[in-house]
């Protein structure tokens, strides 16, 4: 019970921080309104999916350094397919491709017993090369309705981009988490040996977790294609950003604890921080320092608060 | 007494404000997606220096980081939210940014793309002619090796449009010289250390070759030859200060530098201010043609000597101004301070 309160306290703290930052943005730029919120939500799209994928593998006790490269493969595949076929089958193919790429990552880790960080580092280069083979230079096209779907807001005051993040993550994660597989993922992440002795198919659980990560990367690749209208084979800055958001979102590196809601709110926080720094015309070289400092500061504060809570 | 002081203060403020009363009060936004590269740093400094000397610019917001097109979209949207009057950007891709650029133009924001084009209708483009850049250098190199031989082709970043444009120009020159053979093609990522290591690796194989064409990672290639004791071959680079200096100093080095000024960024800011002041050019696209400086002839050597400046960062292009466009001094671009910077 107390564990649930603690977990929710972290998320509640992040929500409060996000709210404070939004108020601050409004104070700095009084004209900041719905269009500003929409652009923050759109910017968060690829980061949110990369982070969701990373969170799943971190919870199972691993890490995937190839998320940005898998997103690039999915983005170029989507852009190439959508030039030739309708949007819906192309999306399904890309989601399947992402899942398979993730399964390959997970399969290699489990079967070869090479550490996850080494395997996925190698796969980072493999997927990067695959993306360039599919599309040597940026090109292709994205279905028009997909590009339009991430703009505006159907539900009042909720940008479509935000609704899409919530919907896609919920559809994949909520049923998964409540299933036997979800429990196995948490069990494997918190203590692999104990999970194994309790009859959890540890290897299979890990492989599927990497598969889910790959599928979230496919969503990320699709959102890149929808944002830009083309496919870009060069991976974007999503690896480090996703690790940062996972940590900031209250997922313990090492596995077994945390959820997906916290990391996704953390993504929004990191995006709004960049908006604020741009509005204030802060020197771009100082901007990255500030972003890093905020991250360390928040995690330190959070850890201190959690530890004190545990002692009581 | 207090009243007197207040009115004196008011007078003083009025006096300082007076010259500015006729100047407009523009805010300009900058967006760039490659950080820590000499050319791009010169571009940013040229933008700051030009904004500083433009009387009509009071505020400059610089979004300058390493990111992809989606990240540049984010920066552009943030600049729109900041209420800028003009956006000068170095686009990561010609087609990927249209949603933000079209929204900016809808709001009456002037858009100027420098260095590479954008396909958004209504945007102005000011750039160096990249295809001509590669063609000019490659043609000189192929002539230099006598129309036949083995060439090492060191490109930029795979999939980036400047690299693709240069590749087109390079291939155009290659078609004119059937005796030329490309023995090795690599992407330096426009990173000094990476390019140098690649040349070390290739020299270590011992495979002979007759010339090197680089996409601007040039002085470190000369270093690689000198440090590994390999005999120098003709090398083509850009007008980076370090490489231009080598062309005059390194014994036995025959080479050519093709100009590719990063200061087009300053020209972009100047163009944006002109457009805001109602002096838009007739054409939407303004191309700056490159020039080739070589050290194989006396005339070429004289040109190179005249262009040098020891105070420049060795990774910066030597051509720090764009005649007819930029108004800042060399000291101002080296200082790299924009309006509002202390």
Describe this structure in words.
The complex is a heterodimer of chains A (312) and B (342). With 312 residues, chain A is mainly alpha-helical. Chain A has a single domain, classed as Orthogonal Bundle (ABC transporter involved in vitamin B12 uptake, BtuC). In chain A, 78% of the residues lie in helices and 0% in strands. Chain A is built from 13 helices and no strands. In chain A, helix 3 crosses helix 10. The longest helix of chain A has 28 residues. The two termini of chain A are 15 Å apart. Chain B has two domains: 168 residues, 3-Layer(aba) Sandwich (Rossmann fold); 129 residues, Response regulator (Rossmann fold, 3-Layer(aba) Sandwich), CATH 3.40.50.2300. Helix content of chain B is 43%, strand content 18%. Chain B is α/β, with parallel strands linked by helices and 342 residues long. The radius of gyration of chain B is 22 Å and the shape is globular. The two termini of chain B are 35 Å apart. In chain B, helix 8 links the parallel strand 8 and strand 9. In chain B, the strands form two sheets. In chain B, strands 2-1-3-4-5-11 form a six-stranded parallel sheet, sandwiched between helices. In chain B, strands 7-6-8-9-10-12 form a six-stranded mixed sheet, sandwiched between helices. Chains A and B meet through helix 2, helix 10, helix 12 and helix 13 of A and strand 2, helix 3 and helix 6 of B.
